[in-house]
Amino acid sequence: MTDFKAIRIDKNDHGHHADYVVMHEGDLMEGDVDVDVAFSAINYKDGLAVTGKAPVVRRFPMIPGVDLAGRVTRSAHPEFAPGDMVVATACGLGEAHYGGFSQRARLSGDWLAKLPPPLTPARAMAVGTAGLTAMFCIIALERHGARPSDGLAAVTGAAGGVGSFAVALLAKAGWRVAAVTGRGAEAEYFTRLGATEIIGRDEFDAPGRPLQKQRFAVAVDTVGGVTLANLLAQIRIDGAVAACGNVGGMELKANLAPFILRGVSLLGVESVRPRIGLRRAAWTRIAQGLDPALIDAMSEIIPFDAALDRARSIVEGKIRGRIVVDMGLNLPARDAG
After folding, report:
1. In a domain? residue 290
2. 96 and 208 part of one domain
3. In-domain check, residue 254
4. Which of 58, 150, 206, 218 counts the most CB atoms within 10 A of its CB?
5. Is 178 exposed, middle or buried (0-12, 13-18, 19+ CB in 10 A)?
């Protein structure tokens, strides 16, 4: 493939705009591995990049797409060879380095992980940054010393991408999981993910006492703000919260009581830096721990020609579940091989 199709964002005197373009391999940025991109995915950050509603793009022009998976076609990196199936997420993709909304990518091999079986590229993109972040949270809790025998695990924002994967991965690891959500009517969905209990989001929406009833051994928080403050107040002695989201606000007006009277730990989790050893370990855990049928049920596959419109829609709250983009390389999407 010499010429290829991509979505490119430009910013000039006429404003911020994104459109499909035809590019040449000479247009690609520096990197020691070339990849034919088989599948990508639409994340909220991609919608912000495409619409310009937040300054997530750090240089122009830019190809958005935080996530990508595909086949190596050229490699000067010692760990990869042509034909390897690989996955990459974050690491500045779609922000500072051309990302996944392109049929071809050139990037650092230090950002790549080989695709562990039985994940296909499409299923890896259904997992994407959301699932990887959820697994980072679980690894952080395990490093803290938490074990399923400790008690109940809570997941806030359980209907979202990170929250849904956190419920499923915690349940697979043997935890009893409480899904905290504003979508209590979707009990069947949470049960299928593995939740044993569903708690209304409204129980965490208003500021509460510094110390509340000890309900949870650990938690994964994707919300932040008041929700996180209440969650900390309900964690049992020596428990921990892995915090990775801020949809409820960046400010944390919490009391010291949970930390100094109960020994509760707050573990910050981020998913942007390469830390490739951690990424590869997390992908292996995901491949072993998620039912392919469950991944399929949480995702929808669309053609690349529809990606730009759907990326705009995600900012308007019109997308549910994970949207996987088929880049048109005719690689299998659903088989287990």
Report:
1. no
2. no
3. yes
4. 218
5. buried
Single-letter residue type at 51: T
Residues 202 and 249 in one domain: yes
Q: What is the dihedral of CA 65, 158, 269, 316, to 10 degrees?
A: 40
**pTM, two decimal places:** 0.90
| Statement to judge: residues 100 and 11 lie in one domain | yes
What is the C-alpha separation between 337 and 331, in angstroms, rounded? 11
Kindly state whether residue 122 falls inside one of the protein's structural domains.
no
* Helices (H), ranges, the chain: 44-51, 121-144, 161-172, 187-193, 225-233, 257-261, 276-289, 292-297, 307-315
Number of domains in the chain: 2
Q: What is the CATH number of the domain that holds 38?
A: 3.90.180.10
Do residues 257 and 138 both lie within one domain? yes
What share of the chain in percent tops pLDDT 70? 96
Q: pLDDT digit string (tens) for 73-86?
A: 999 999 999 999 99
Distance between CA atoms of 283 and 262, rounded to whole angstroms?
33
How many helices (H) and strands (E) would you count in the chain?
9, 15
**CB-based contact 68:122 (threshold 8 Å):** no
User: What is the rounded CA–CA span in Å between residue 66 and residue 56?
Assistant: 11
Write out the two tokens for 331.
């690689």
Q: Taken in order 182, 218, 115, 102, is the CA torsion positive or negative?
A: positive
Q: How many CB atoms lie under 10 A from the CB of residue 253? A: 10
pLDDT tens digits for 8-43?
999 988 889 999 999 999 999 999 999 999 999 999
Kindly tell me if the per-residue pLDDT of 87 is higher than 60.
yes
Q: Which residues pair with 220 in a beta bridge?
A: 155, 242
In a shared domain, residues 140 and 74? no
218, 150 Cβ separation under 8 angstroms: yes
